Here is the input.
Amino acid sequence: MKHYLITLLLLLPFVITAQKELTLYDAVMNQYRDFYPSGTAGFMWIPGTDNYSVYDANYQSLLRGNVKNDETEVIITTDEMNKATGATFRYSKIDSWKDGTHFYTSAEGMYYLIDTENKTAEIIGGTPSVAEEEFLHPSTGAIAYNGNGVGIIGKANEGQNVIDDENGYVNGKAIARSEFGITTGIFWSNSGKYLGFYRKDESNVADYPLLDITTPTGSLNAIKYPMAGQGSELSGAGIFNRETEKTILLKPEGDSEDYMTNFGWSMDDKYVFIAEVNRDQNHMKLQKYEAETGKFLGTLFEEKNDKWVEPENPPYFVSNDQFIWLSERDGFMNMYLYDVEGKLIKQLTNNEWVIKGIDGHDDAGNVYFHGTGDSPLETHYFKVNIKSGKQTQLTNESGTHRVSFSSDFAYMHDAFSSTEIPNIETIKDAKGKVKRTLITAKNKLADYKIGTAEFGTIKAADETTDLHYRMIKPSDFDPSKKYPVLVYVYGGPHAQLVTNSWYGGASLWMYWMAEQGYIVYTVDNRGSANRGFEFESVIHRNLGDAEMADQMEGVKFLKGLDYVQGDRIAVHGWSFGGFMTTSLMLRYPGEFTTGVAGGPVTDWSYYEVMYGERYMDRPEQNEEGYKKARLMNYVDRLQGELLLIHGTVDDVVVMQHNLALVKAFVDAGVQMDFFPYPMHPHNVRGKDRVHLMEKVLTYIIKNNK
Here is the structure.
């Protein structure tokens, strides 16, 4: 009896503190709903003041805070906004501040300017039903929109039609398949006098059919999809003068197939700048135009590279006659100071790490920017003085920072996380000193049974370059046991999976998978982002080769660990990761028992012009490279189990990729598995994503034996 009581006492604390089990549903659907670290809601600096605004806990009041104390006060409530506008706001929605007492908001297609002191609203106007994207000019309150052309809404019931879409032309939308850093197609000038926009002629681009199964007999939705080596869109731009109501159209100064990218305005609105890139993407010219007339004023400078030149940021003006250009010309993204005539004044930064973007400048000549800093796993903020060249790091805590600056750059709101810290938000002064802490978030998974992520480096296949990996182990990890492995891979350009941030850059389903008795491993191979041009450009003309060689170094590393069951390694990835997954299964047969590839590129000649030709050149220029990367050529080498997945209306990696590969397997008499997700585009989102991840992970667990 005594022995029994002792045992019960030993078990009692475990019973009381027993941790919850994370379900796959929670891991997929609630990563951002229930488990994302708490933070301030809707933080915005109020211009011209030391104040900021945030939402209250229920989003029913907009609150004002000050950098010097912990107190907040109500600016306006949802009920007051409804009364002032006559609209129905579900929460105290703010789009942007105009000044210290007025902010813009919108509801049901109508825009308003709210006076927070008098609790009144001015109607700006409503956009038509055809509007797809809307762009507010902060000082004038004018709203530009796209959708069957470009239009502008000024005061109530007063609109300006800029240009209509017709004869194959599309206006005011992102061009070049959103490459070259292009995310939008409309660009307000600083004063609001002019509206710039992209314009593309798609008449040479083939129609690609996507099947809509929701209609009784099925119907086709034809999209314009330029495949590598085929007819591409012809890019252009336009300038609309709001005073004269006249539009000027611009075309490339070189070849008609040149890309017009990185549209930018001079500070005084006199000039427009466009980075013109040739179709081969190895030659860029920064072109200058007169805004009033559209007159071409000349090429300011050129950049060439045997591999590629990829401008992703417009000129950033620090005065009427000087601007900063971001370029990788020295191997890393750095800042170069030019005058408005194209004379290089000096290289402003000389970092051997990647600058990710410019955030603004102050009256003292300091330019604020963010980049990796010394660790490619992190994001930090800096300033550099234009005159002295002195560079100062403003964020020093190890991790990933997201900073917004007050209008005079005297203060910054810093939200950062790391593998150890869910989220800490502070107000700092211009020197980076913490003035007050807004929130220190708790780990919302503290009560759950969840594994740990470990980080380290291995050598790339070149035996020189360090590659960063993340390894997630189960919570009850026992080094004396042997564990199967799931390798999660992306591996392509403009992506990085391993970061010093909460969860380590991983999705929560990976931690769930670890609890099923797995090690989940990821390594960022050469060709991925934030390591500089040499690291990334090794892939040129041979997509998959260096990337797979590096992934296999990861496999070699895994097999050398005492606790890894080296004959039970599976691989999974999506998009470029789907290409990598299928490539690894076919070109390294027997190394993986199981692969699940989502939305994979299987033949780069089926992929879009802008991305594909940058990395592979045109098919006729690189026949051997395209042949080597074509997965249909390796179907007879499959060993193990392979599941291919695709959304049936994928407009990024069209389903032709997977269907062509399936046909090759059938022709070769090789068995594999295929699963379509009807009416889903390039990824499976919403509630169906649970079905997707259950499909993926169940397949791996079942077959990785």
The first strand starts at residue 20 and ends at 21. The chain has four domains: 40-123, 127-314, 319-443, 448-703. Residues 688-703 form the longest helix (16 residues).
